[in-house]
Amino acid sequence: MTASPLGSWLFVDASPFFGGHEVMLLRWIDELQAQAQVRPRVLARASSRLLDQAPQATRCEPFPAEGGLRAELQWLRRSVRALEPECVVVASGALGAHVPHVMMLRAMGLRVLLYVPLLGAFASMGYRLGAWKDRFVRWFYAKVPSGWVAITEAQADEFRAWARPSGPVFVLPNTIAPELEQAARMPVRARGPQEPLRALVLGRLDAHQKGLDLLLDHLAQSDPARYGGLHFSLVGDGPYHGDIEATVRTHPALAQHVQLQPWMSAHAALADCDVLLLCSRYEGVPLVMLEAMALGVPVVCSDLPGTQPYVPAGCRFAVGDIAAALAALQTLRPVERRRQLADAGRAGFEAQASGRAFSAHVQQLTRSVRARFNIPGAAAAMSEAPGIAGFQATRELSMLVTVYIPTKNRLALLQRAVASVLAQTHQDLEVIVADDGSTDGTLAWLEQLSTQDGRIRFFHHAQSLGAPAARNKAIRSARGEWVTGLDDDDSFMPERLALFLEHAARLDASGQRYSGLYATEVIESEKRSYTLDKPAVTEFGDLFRYNTIGNQIFARRQAYLDAGLFDESMPAWQDLDLFLRMVHKCGPAHLVPQATYRLADDDRSDRISKKKKPKLIDAYARICAKWPDAPATDKQRLYLQLLAPFYGFPLEWADVRRYFGQGVSLSAAVALFKNVVKRAQRHGRAAAA
């Protein structure tokens, strides 16, 4: 059987400028070419450095130098007709750029991804007529592209919240040049009592975006004694250069603390500083921040979606709060503090922005795009029909799965749970442990384990935020296309992930719409071990009658995000609440009939989810409020879940009043009567035992 030719992805950038976004575009193209899953092609201006630096084999005939926008669009239409790409990526330095190009491509029926470094609302970034531009995006333009590519999860979440796009928002984090990543780390110098701490401001000298006007105005109006131990080097060029010179001349005291230098390489500039300072009003993911982290230089920066995943909270300040920025700088005078931040920054870079991490991100993005738009990949062409051989090929295809495990002060149980994941027959996985305030040695164990196995990631909440918050943070940071959970007192059987992936491949091949997959559990307690029969398909209404999915679902990460993740305000039934939203939005859930999950059902005092009736009643009321149009019979059956023998609550008159408060009918009375009979039978068996 001959191999299917690679599909092409066309990258379009009509900008005459070359900046950080174009650098990232080149890295993306290089990585795609190396991975050989798609054939990247580049369409840009003839004079563009982007086209000059793109690999020769990827270059298309450039846009015409003359003729304006109309000639560009005609050339673009001709190019896509000749290439017939499976996907077009339009790289846009700003959200409002390239609008005609995107609209024309969509009118031609092409899949279009818009790759933008900044997805914040125009009004929040101080744009002229920002409110009107935001309305244009929210009401119209957010519905035009097939999908979007952001550079952080926080930016993607922000964009989903304010723009409400109709297509998915994928994420491709930034990285840096390989030569900088491989360069030796900068030495962390001790500064004497009379030596100033040297802060570097590096990049385009732009007043508004980079916040340089905020910095200079604050320094000019403040008593120099308040920043006497600091020296600021402003390195770069741009429209604000003359204003900086004029401000320094007007305020002679500033000349002792502010030095303006011409542009130089990031390596040279960072070699002469103690800390990088970013005062920006808005940013994507600043490349200079990643470069500083890679070279071991601490960073103090504005608190923005693009900086939050990389810089610790103590080194971030509210946008415009220069006094807080200066205070944060002063805390870095001790050399040990800077060494700690340098080590943490390098570790964070390795995990999130290194070349290895970027390669994994590109591979994951390619899979996610193809899966979302049902584009067959190279491996899918190995089988012309969905037979056994085809599913074996799918199983062998590398498919990253994220398993998240929330935990708190249960180290021995956690170690067993993690071991069961690492023992999976499907080994392309990552484990994210969400440590919600443990004080029993869990953190030290995770730190040691993560250095031994790169598939282990973790985060630690100094104060407990609750299991739903921990799960949500883990899902947001997941790199896998597929995500599932594991409670720390439960465990996986070795074939669990592989069986899920095989079943998902069958459903995808058949074109069925579904939200996720679930499996049979082996329920283990001190007295017995048993399984429960489950239906082959779970629809929305079924979940009111019984949570047939259980406590975990295997679903694409995007399905969790589309459903809104776990509701952190729910006092109980957080999983049932999420499953209702997922199934309602994304389609029914399907059963993998094999038992692949060991669920602990013993009554321990340290259980995360304790069976407290007031919490369940509150959860019941909240779910009913979320689905006001659900039939009364469904809400009554939901209340019967609360009265199930599993919980062991006594039936009280208040329960009867709540139950019939949804409506009185013969079927409702019969359902309640059956519940009472089951409870009596279980009580009788327990008494006999």
TrEMBL record:
Keyword DNA repair appears in the UniProt entry: no
Signal peptide positions on this chain: none
Keyword Cytoplasm: no
Spans traversing the lipid bilayer: none
Species of origin: Pseudorhodoferax soli
GO molecular function: transferase activity
Sorted UniProt keywords: Transferase
PANTHER family: GLYCOSYLTRANSFERASE (PTHR43685), GLYCOSYLTRANSFERASE 2-LIKE DOMAIN-CONTAINING PROTEIN (PTHR43685:SF2)
Name of the protein this chain belongs to: Glycosyl transferase family 1
